[in-house]
Queue: 3 jobs
Job 1
Amino acid sequence: MPGDNGPIVFTLELPDSQQLQVLDPVTGSIRTLAHRQGVDASQADWSPSGRRLVFEAGVKDRAMIQVVRFDGIHRRTLRPGLSGFLGNPAFVPHSNLIVFERNDPRTDDDSLWLMHRDGSHPRRLTTNPFPGQGGDTDPNVSPDGRTVSFVRISVIDNQQALYSVRLDGSHLKRLIPYAADVAVNVDVINDVERAPAHRNETE
């Protein structure tokens, strides 16, 4: 969708941790958004309104999902009541939802899930068919909030395909084959003719 450019969030790697930094593309100034010693903050995603960010916070052998306001205050952990690795979160526009990756080491299941923005009501979105050797990762949501693109891994660093799925779990579709070894950081945009003229985000 056309619009003005705004602040850019990125991860800065330090000797003791990774922290989130925000770059003003106009002035070039950089400020620290989220930094705690021993906690790796990464995979940040802006809310559609630009007032909050959701990101992955890694501590030793586990990861969780946290949200923080654009000015770095009111940082808190979302607790959907799920075990395992929780990361790669992204806001779903026009809804009260966040999509994220969950890796459950007890079952070797690595798939995509949804939850409310307060961490409640988690539900499964995908089921990766390659337990123990693959996973579903890097979810990105279309601006209309209807479609999630993601990378489905069958063999790590060798067989990775691009998929899309509707928010209700229907219309799962492979867009690019595994042999292409698709990388992460894929994004999705609406078809211009079907893009909504007005956006009414829930924040």
Job 2
Amino acid sequence: MQRLLIAVAACAWVSVAGAQAPEPPPAPPASAADAMAPALPATTPEAAHAEFKRRFELRDYAGAVEQGRAVVAYAERSQPPDEEHLQVALMNLAIAQRMAGDYLASEATYQRVIGLIEGAGRMASPRLGRAYGGLALTYHAARRYDLAVPAFERAIALLRRAEGLFSEEQLPLLEKHADALTEIERPEEALKVHRYALRLVDRRFGEQSLRYAQELESFGRWYTRARAYESSRVVLRACVDLLVKLEGPDSLQLIGPLTAAADNARRWLTDPSVSFTSSPDEQNRTPFSDPVLPGPPTLSPSMIASEGLRALERATAIVDAHPDAPPASIAAVHVQLGDLFQVRQAPESALPHYQRAWQAATRAPTTDGRPVQELLFGDPLRLHYVLPDGWDRYATRPPEEVERRLVEIEATVTPQGRLQDLTLQSDAGDPKFAQRALRAAESARYRPRFVDGQPVETRGIRFTQPLYVLRESQEPDDTAREAGDPPSEDKPQGGG
């Protein structure tokens, strides 16, 4: 039975999904295990574990949690006590709890495993590194990035100590570690993590391998999130070229980097901080420009848009030509192409792609315990918004000089993805700016909510436009008051 438990833990270690949850509580004392032990639904430990494994493989994570608790209860009551068996049973339970979205329980279970291992003095045990890794992934899934970063650092250090500097087992952790660092505004460290991961994959698999191409895609997607669009473009093109060389021009493996390239182009074109009228040198001066991966001398918006469209059309042709293409991939490609047309104010062209995505999503496995249809079409998703002029006028002032306020708007998203019936809920003390925010909100474009394969109206959507105003002790700049402009504006954070 112990070998079976270890096998499930090893399998689940590399199949982790993220979601949202509130902040986990402090770890409970060891005696809390008695309170969580359920009545035993199976007659033997082996039967409980077999049912746990069956439910886990079926993605019935709530059912797997129930059976996992039974396995833990059997392990706690075994005579003589078997700490090894109990640790593995707890690891399996923690994984199932995380996959079920119960991050509070998962955090507590991982903390209990860590306490057992450290209490036994087994500081060099690989399981301790995996337990810290599981805890870090739980924090990441719960969006507690401030807690995730030190947990990732501890897990990676332990795994390197136990299994070597270039241990392959670090890879699932390194990508999430970089994400967490980016979220807490430490992008330079995140860049180092991605470079290390690429070096690790090169050492283990070589530069001419499928695994190396996958790591290039991950790196390129991160560059997009870090707003280093030219670096992302270059890395993703290298990924596509490598995959064509390894698997041919029609490989399903190309879908990932092609859709990533299209997403990079879309974000590049809609990023208000990007100026296409600047010089080539200024364009290349991004926060994470990489001299090893230089961008082209200059790129026009039309060229970027054309490249993004071609990438999506190529990905769509690939999935549509493969009868065995995963439904999730079909849905992802078509919904992204629909989004592109939606942003271009062509909802009639977007609709067939959205409906194709809806149909494919009905056959896709759940993600984070939620149907793919719900993830893609359960709520309107804002795709585009033109910021009011001067929104960042005071954004760089010291915090003691400015105050952040919110203009709040409530509206209806139409089946065509536009806002109508806009109602001002709060003007943030600046009626003139609030009217400008209302006009700006009319530029927003959404992926509409779908019901039974058709776009529908959604009322009560909240749309917020932050702004910074000078505090009363600060005199406004004369130049900032030209033409009766309002004191400040900021980038919107809400709205669907």
Job 3
Amino acid sequence: MLKNAILLLLFLTALAGCAAVPVQQKNVQMFAIETLQGPVNVSLSSVAGQISGNGYLFFKSPDSFRLSILAPFGQIVFDIIVAGEKVLCLQENRKAAWQGSVGDLPPALGTKVWPLMKWIVESPQPAGPSLERVFTRADGTIEIVYYDTGGFVQRKVNGVGDEVFYSDYRITDGRAIANRIELVASEGSRLVLTFDDPEVNLPIENSVLNQSLAGYDIRPLGELKEFSSWK
């Protein structure tokens, strides 16, 4: 899903290169993710099976992202672009595009996980004094947040049972970022994102999340029924 890099999915990241070190201090800040972009390993499990691969992710708050899945030699083999409820899937080598809503995605592409991406990267609630805190969200639902002794979020659970786990925190410019994010939707779908030197809160060009479809054969997303791999 993108010629300059890649998409799909949600979310919090590892730090840059050699400067990235495991978190070892308490007085660092957690912060809101406005944009996120960089290499990522994606693993997605659902009732339809499991697919995984390496790619490139672009995320822009509040709910737009693009995941480009790469072949071993770096070519983009599949793209998913999500903006709110709208979804666009692309296969560049076939010049094929599928448009629709999140609910039209085949189960193998994570119908339930992508709407949770915004929740994954929300600004964290403050830690302490307890390592487990219960919050009432703006929509009236309950969220439970679990912290480690350093004040970093380890896990969040929402009112319907969706869970997200954060691990392998790294520090950059005094701010903590989780390098690994695991989302488990209440119906059983599971998404794992493992980042590699992502860039946080830097500008993302509009063309990345607004793909031109000139020259593409455009079809309804519902026709992507038999999807079982990225290729």
